[in-house]
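This is your field. Please look over both lines of this record.
***
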Amino acid sequence: MGRILRYLAMLVGAVVLAAALGTLVPRPLWPAAAGGEGTRHILVLKNPIHTDIAVPLDDGVRRRFAFLADAGLPMGAPEERYIVFGWGGRAFYLETPTWSQLKAGPVLKALTLDASVMHVDLAGAIKEPHPDVAGFDIDEQHFSTLLDYIAASFQQGPEGPVVIENAGYSTYDRFYEANGHFNALVGCNTWTAAGLRIAGLRTGWWNPLPMSLGWSLRMYN
């Protein structure tokens, strides 16, 4: 028993150290050369365990993600201001619409290995400043590469991105099959962090939690 407890303590210590270093060591290590004028304002939205990327909704973005309208999302509604994108574990996303519906099965899959899905949501005006919202101005080139990254996360079928039928929390969101597999070490927040780096921002080296990602974004941008 003593040996097991020592092993567990070492394991917990290693995870804590990795998380601390993942927050404090920037990625990339050195700032990139200055880009163009920051004309695009993107948002990072967070809750205690998850982060999303919100991009401003305009005609170009509507055309880029026209398949969302084909699935019934009201992309042309004048009150909609952002598309919110999130990548995550299939079981947890689809089977846990609210915290009160949390079950052991999705949690176990999230901690081990699960298929992934993309969650897409439409949003109106998002209040800033707000503790759960971080805004960043990026240039057109980085905005375009961010959209490329998001689009590449959707799994492609014979007719384009594969919508998951009868899945969603409301009229304004949809789920799609995604590329990659989800686990606790490489999860939704590392997906968000990778997208932000592609958008020209610096994150921590490894950010598995919203808190560590938020800290690193404030330190290095």
